[in-house]
Design goal:
Layout lengths: L18 H55 L14 H18 L8 H29 L6 H32 L5 H29 L4 H63 L33 H11 L3
Helix pairs in contact: 1-6, 2-3, 2-5, 3-4, 3-5, 4-5
Length: 328
């Protein structure tokens, strides 16, 4: 983009004109200068915003190119989860929601307020689902050799905590039943205990399996693909915003130019009418300069700047160029 320095008119152009014509030209230049001053402030603001977006776009494109080089080292491998990504967290949230009443039924002996009981039950459900998500991801990454000893230690710790919580809730549930059902025998209590733990395990295993199928064995590849997708969305957003600003800039520039053109055309029309009347009414030949065709050369040259690129290379072309060159 050019520097787009706006030069305000400072003096009438030096061409032969009649005194009355010089007066009209000065008035036209004053009006033109007012248009130009108004436009100068607006143009400066719009171009500053566009320059900021251009800078942000270059930085983001540089990050995208860096991620692309890393992706190239992995032979541009891809990964597609078995389920739509948009279902991942909603379904895990649904599992936590369905588990909450089960947890709440085991907390009756803690003598808490009903609201507190539900909050604790919901928290346990959320933590259970998050633990299942962690275990499922690490098990999946182990298939690609990406899980190390530290990961397995963490998996064991999460499983131990989850199982301990399940057994503790089941024990609370059984104590509550024993108090409410006077004829609850040992066998019945054992079956109830096993059923409660089984339901808890069901939610946990569903979370593990679902998460397992949502992740790639190569955690780094999955991160690269997510980052590239995120950066591409950022690039598209910046590009759309820049295109909108460029459109506003060029539309405003066109309006200013149209206003200045009208002022000057009105002045030229008055000069043409004056010369025509003068040449028809005078008794002596008119000066040669009065026969010259009138144009905008009688005014001071004015640079309002150039239009911005309203149709620059498409976002796909720029990204493709960055991908092909592996640099910005």
């Amino acid at each position: 983009m050019s520097s787009n320095v706006i030069a305000l008119p400072t003096a009438p152009a030096t061409r032969p004109v009649a005194p009355i014509e010089a007066k009209w030209i000065r008035h036209a230049e004053i009006d033109t200068a007012e248009h130009a001053r108004t436009w100068a402030g607006r143009a400066s603001s719009l171009r500053a915003q566009v320059n900021r977006l251009d800078h942000a776009f270059r930085d983001t494109l540089g990050q995208y190119a860096f991620m692309h080089r890393q992706h190239r080292e992995k032979d541009f491998a891809g990964f597609h989860p078995k389920y739509p990504r948009g279902l991942y967290w909603p379904l895990l949230g649904l599992a936590a929601l369905l588990e909450t009443p089960l947890n709440n039924s085991a907390l009756g002996l803690l003598n808490m307020d009903q609201a507190e009981t539900w909050m604790v039950a919901a928290s346990i459900g959320v933590l259970n689902v998050l633990g299942a998500s962690f275990v499922g991801a690490k098990v999946r990454q182990s298939a690609g050799g990406m899980a190390g000893l530290r990961d397995w230690i963490l998996v064991g710790l999460v499983l131990a905590i989850a199982l301990g919580v399940m057994l503790g809730l089941a024990g609370l549930r059984m104590d509550d039943l024993a108090m409410k059902v006077s004829q609850a025998g040992i066998a019945g209590s054992a079956w109830n205990f096993a059923a409660f733990v089984g339901l808890q395990l069901l939610f946990f295993v569903v979370g593990v399996v679902f998460t397992y199928n949502m992740h790639s064995p190569d955690a780094e590849l999955e991160r690269l693909l997510k980052d590239k997708g995120r950066l591409r969305r950022q690039l598209e957003g910046i590009w759309k915003e820049r295109a909108a600003l460029a459109s506003r800039h060029d539309q405003a520039l066109g309006e200013v130019r149209a206003g200045i053109t009208k002022v000057r055309e009105d002045c030229l029309a008055k000069m043409a009418e004056y010369r025509d009347h003068n040449m028809r009414s005078r008794s002596t030949p008119a000066p040669s300069w009065m026969h010259r065709e009138l144009d905008h050369a009688v005014f001071v040259p004015l640079d309002l700047g150039t239009p911005l690129d309203r149709e620059p290379p498409s976002i796909d072309q720029l990204i493709t160029t960055a991908e092909e060159s592996h640099r910005v």
